[in-house]
Design a protein that fits this description.
The chain has helices at 18-28, 76-86, 103-106, 133-151, 169-184, 193-201, 246-255, 264-267, 282-293, 300-323, 335-350; strands spanning 36-40, 48-54, 57-63, 96-100, 110-114, 211-213, 222-224, 232-235, 242-244. The protein is of the alpha+beta class. The chain folds into 2 domains: 18-114, Phosphorylase Kinase, domain 1, CATH 3.30.200; 127-350, Aminoglycoside 3'-phosphotransferase, Chain: A, domain 2. The chain has a 5-stranded antiparallel sheet with strand order 1-2-3-5-4, sandwiched between helices. Strand 2 (48-54) and strand 3 form a beta hairpin. The protein is globular. The two termini are 31 Å apart. The model is unreliable at 68-72 (pLDDT under 50).
């Protein structure tokens, strides 16, 4: 493991036309001079992310994946507008530099932003960081604090009042993700009809205090300061940001939050090392967020179940592309097992067997 977030050789089938990209960027970003290089960040399962080096400058390019995509997903124009508007009031956003909707350049919309250099933690803590109980407690608390800070942003002040429709948000999410799962289901994953029925029958009342929500706030979307790894200096992957119930945002984070007493199939999926000693448990994270925000947390079973189901749908939509030969990324081959584990955990939540 390494603390470096390294870009590597571009995966076959995901290459860019370097000449076209170089010409576009040098025309649209002042001061870009020097040799032009493109590599790819290997992590992530959704939008494709590339490192662009021009002389001594480093930029990040984001574009949609290849193959069948959810109708409203991967909207590069929307993601670019959100980041541009949000950064002045939430400076953990990366700074946007250029947007392109000319299909002659890449065949799809894409945008370019500054690279936020720092440490990104994924499935494990790099040994050189030397994190113990105290550091894990601080890091997991800080993640909740950043979430609370985002949910407290004045969307009107950010010019983002039209970003989404908070009224009816929970119902639209439950119905929408249920439809997506049915559309993307392959024969080797669970039917999940009972989970979808339970969610539809157990929706909480409308949130009295909707806000800006990230919808994918987890540790591998967090950039830590190289000199002070306890300090968060950036948040990445804003493609699903909208206005809605902040507890739905918390739900998405909890779905990624393994703890030491989880079933083995869930620990095998662990994308965050929150099972390590010192980390807040999911219950402690919920309590801490509630203290920070003053929100009522009495329906967290619904929110956690929804978060698990939503994550299962996201994984299934990606697996669908692999199953049908629309992508050859070998990481996607095991996603069906992950979908099954997430549906099983959702069923345990419904039965009151989790904490």
């Amino acid at each position: 493991m390494s603390v470096d977030n390294k870009a590597v050789k571009i995966r076959p089938g995901e290459e860019l036309d370097a000449g076209k990209v170089e010409r576009f960027l040098k025309r649209n970003i002042p001061g870009l001079e020097g040799d032009f290089q493109i590599s790819q960040f290997p992590s992530g399962y959704s939008n494709l992310t590339y490192l662009i080096k021009v002389g001594d400058r480093e930029l990040v390019l984001r574009r949609p994946p290849h193959g069948t995509k959810a109708k409203t997903a991967h909207d590069m124009s929307r993601e670019y507008r959100v980041l541009t508007a949000l950064r002045p009031v939430f400076p953990l956003c990366p700074r946007t530099l250029a947007f392109c909707d000319d299909p002659a350049v890449m065949g799809c919309d894409f945008y370019v932003m500054e690279r936020l250099d720092g440490i990104i933690i994924r499935k494990e803590i790099p040994p050189e960081l030397g994190f113990g109980r105290e550091q894990m407690e601080h890091l997991t608390k800080r993640l909740m604090e950043v979430m609370a800070e985002l949910h407290g942003v004045d969307c009107a002040a950010a010019g983002l009042s039209e970003l989404g429709k908070p009224a009816g948000y929970v119902e639209r999410q439950v119905m929408g993700w249920s439809k997506r799962y049915r559309n993307a289901r392959t024969p080797d994953v669970p039917q999940a009809e009972k989970v979808m029925k339970w969610l539809a029958e157990n929706m909480p009342p409308e949130s009295p205090t909707p806000g800006i929500i990230h919808n994918d706030l987890k540790l591998d979307n967090v950039v830590l300061d190289r000199d002070d790894p306890m300090k968060i200096v950036g948040i990445l992957d804003w493609e699903m940001t909208t206005l809605g119930d902040p507890l739905m945002d918390l739900a998405c984070t909890l779905a990624y939050w393994p703890q030491a007493d989880d079933p083995a199939e869930m620990l095998a999926l662990a994308g965050m090392p929150t099972y390590l000693p010192g980390s807040l448990t999911r219950g402690q994270a919920v309590d801490y967020y509630g203290r920070l925000t003053g929100r009522v947390m009495d329906r967290i079973d619904f929110y956690y179940c929804f978060g698990l189901f939503r994550l299962a749908v996201i994984a299934q939509q990606i697996y669908y592309r692999y199953f049908h030969g629309q992508t050859q990324d070998p990481r996607f081959a095991t996603l069906a097992a992950g979908v099954t584990a997430l549906i099983n955990q959702a069923r345990r939540v419904m039965a009151g067997e989790t904490n």
